[in-house]
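Encode chain A's predicted structure.
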Amino acid sequence: MLAASVVGLLVASSIALIAGPAQATTAGFTAANGIVYGPSAGDGTITAIGYTGSDTTVVIPATVLKDSTSFPVTAIDEYAFYGKNLSSITLSEGLVSISSHALGGNLMTAITIPASVKNIGQDIFYEGAVVSVTFAGLAPTLDDSNATYPPLGWGSRYDGVVVTPVTVHYLSQFAVDGGFTSGAWTDYLTVIDPIVSFDLTEHGGSIDSQRLIAGELAVPPTLTDTEVGCWTSDAERMTKFDFSVAPTTDVTLYAKWASCTAFTAANGITYDTSAGDGTATAVSLTDAASRIVEIPDTVEDMSTTYTVTAIGNSAFAYKSITEITIGNNVTTLGSSAFKSNLLTSISIPASVKTIGGSAFHTNSFLSPLDIPGSVESIGAAAFANDGLTSVTLHEGLQFIGGYAFANNARLTAISIPASVKTIEANIFYGAPVVSVAFAGAAPTTVLGADDLEPSLGTAEGLKVHYLSKFGVDGGFTTPTWMGYTTVIDPIVSFDVTGHDPIAEQRLVAGELAVDPEPTDADFDGWYTTADFTTAFDFSVAPTDDVTVYAKWATADVVTSTSPTLTLDLGLAVGDVVAGAPVTVSGAGLAVGSDYTVILRSTPVLLAGGTIDSTGAFTASAILPTGVTAGQHTVTLTGTATDGSVISRVAYLTVSATGTVTYLSYTAADAATTVTAALAATGFTAAPLGFAALLLLLAGATLVAARRRSVA
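Encoded structure for chain A:
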């Protein structure tokens, strides 16, 4: 009996040991967020079976607490969340199964399926709007046994027609072996979402990777305990990652702890790109670099191209450089940029606008210095102590800093462009500059010769040269200006009517003009007058501005196919005739020929003159008092370039009270000769010569006949 009891106890104990501890269980219940859960399974897990809440966003948790016991949520039952007007459903890692129609009839358009999900039933988004399904892990098993209810639904439909199909997003690591396929998977469109990972080598810690939807931009991570210069897409940290471009594949980004706004190119030049606008400034040169330096138009760093627009302060100072090429995009040369080198010449590109103070201080220029017109400002001492013998400044320069050309012992003369407005102190200090020629008006800011630091220096015998047109109103005065002796430089201009222009010559007082010697075959010498009566003598220095005229063996022929005459009496019917203005003009007429304006019946010359060199004229007159009642004419006559005489006639009838009762304008018949000389001393002119009178009578007869024919 006892033995039997012992045996029974041992068997019971064995069964208990084999079965293990009992799992906690619970009956169905509704959680605080409105999710309804069914009774727990024998393994202690629980299933979400419904939703009674009012929120439109729902998170199905990984576990749910009931009676102080945590139950893993591993399944969602059929129709559990169907038709709840949910705009968002978040599924937690740990979920294993989603039954048919479980999430259908809602408003959400996208959802993420956790990597833990292994089984998906039929049409889980039944009658919903989901068009984007993102899988965090391997492809689950799908219930596709009924084609009417595809596992992930039909996407967005209208009246049964698919408007937007479902797109499946997955990670590249789960392609092929993970069950997904590129392009399509179980009849769904597929897209591989890139993963951006972050490598913090040598600095410890970690940063969560970023899963991006195709086309989405990665977000630069923020570190609170250290600073990353930039992120690179290669372990060598040479290729900067561009966060403005969406990755298309998985990428690991490596933290570069040094500043990414400065880098050193292969030729030893270090550039700064901190401006952030795609430009770079050359800031230094390694000591081991070549003495021959080239600053390029652009420079590349980590797959990014920058435009080199500036040379930084002292960037190349004291480097024993013998030759330098400046890129064509450089606009600024910083202070002391090339100070104390071995340069014997320099070519400044036309892109440069500003030359900083001491930029080229202490070099050994053997060649003339030409500063382009793009340069607006030359800083203090910019070219001091450089051994300069010649400096050319161009129009466009506005500012010359103090001591800019100081201590250039061989520089004796210079010309200042008209654009210069400011000249600071002693720009020629220690230089024997004795001739400063100004091309325009006096600068608005300048220090006089008796100032402690005069603008133009103190060289013995220094003279300021200016042009006569800039005397007084242009700011210059004679015999001195600002304490400097002044000289007016004559200008010799060349009039080459109808031929290639010749530049004027500005001469220093006492200097001879140079014969430009035109090569035209018909050139016949230079003259001081337009009528070619006095030849210009190039062996005598001009003392004033002078224009010399080129004589051509064959005169230019001026032709006009359309001579015109304009006559206007300034009258209308009813106006008083006496004192009315007469305005005439003409064009396309024979140069040097005469024109006349005659009032008839008793001839009175109202106006007359000679056609100018352009073949044109304008004139005016006044109709006299005492014009008798009756019919009269005013005739304007001129000669066309072909020699024919042309006229324009005004017909008017004057009343007994001296007002106009009729007025018209008609082109008169062309005459072939004009021989009458008409008096112009009043309306009752002196008698004409017999021949002239005959012509006038004949003219009157013609007019009368014309009127009869018109009538």
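The two ends are 168 Å apart (CA to CA).
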